[in-house]
Amino acid sequence: MAGHSKWANIQHRKGRQDAKRGKLWTKIIREITVAAKEGGDDIDSNPRLRLAIEKATAANMPKDNIQRAIQRGSGGTEGENYTEMRYEGYGAGGVAVLVDTVTDNHMRTVAEVRHAFSRNGGNLGQDGCVAYLFQRCGQFYFAPGTSEDDIMNIALENGADDVITDEEEGTIEVLCEPNVFGDLQAAFKEAALEPILADVVMRPETEVEIEGAQAESVQKLIDTLESLDDVQEVFTNASMPSEDE
């Protein structure tokens, strides 16, 4: 019988990210554009833009593409007028789902998101119905076997809020304020400590364990939402069983 392994879920989340590489450039370009529009084109004073550019670099995006997206967002060139929208709802078993989008057509986006919920056993809710269950923070996950002492030292020296070790599986999670994320990420990199996942996320305060048909429905909902062009990120408080246990 499958178990609720956090490490297996982290690996699955990483696998989903890797599987989205085909659409990754489009999503990153939109993120860069909105970040530049919101906070300006100076990466030193705009941590969101800095993070988006780091993602672009990691995805081997050409510098010209990055620069055009920055210019589009900061008003230097004409282009699509992207804006951010967050949708909230419930999946099978009553789990909470947050959907962050960047769109140039709100009517199209809400219709696609609502359809994804309805066809996969969920319901699109009102603004604020589940967002209070999540905390926006920087999050790093390190694989079992990574030195806890080294991670703890770097984390404490660079403004992290918490270091959480899973005693059973050996994974290490580091949490920080979003504005500290870039500096902490650089510190880990300098110390040759490579997290399997690192991002600014909406982290659930508590998780809800689901299994069987409910877990399958929630996973299909997440996959459907993530396949939509306007969807940037999907967050849920569902803890689903790993398939390899």
Keywords:
245 residues, alpha+beta, Arc Repressor Mutant, subunit A, 4-stranded antiparallel beta sheet, 22% strand, flat
- CATH-level-4 superfamily name of one domain: Integrase, N-terminal zinc-binding domain
In CATH's first tier, which class of one domain applies?
Mainly Alpha
Overall geometric form: flat
Overall CATH architecture of one domain = Orthogonal Bundle
In terms of DSSP E residues, the strand content is 15-25%
Q: The biggest beta sheet, please?
A: 4 strands, antiparallel
Write out the strand line-up for the largest beta sheet, numbering strands in chain order: 3-1-2-9
Structural class: alpha+beta
Fraction of residues in helix: 40-55%
* CATH fold title of one domain: Arc Repressor Mutant, subunit A
* Strand and helix order: HHHHEEHEEHEEHEEHEE
Radius of gyration: 18 Å
Beta strand count: 10
Uncertain regions: pLDDT < 50 for 5+ in a row?
A: none
Cα-to-Cα separation, first versus last residue: 7 Å
Q: Give me the number of helical elements.
A: 8
**Average of pLDDT:** 89
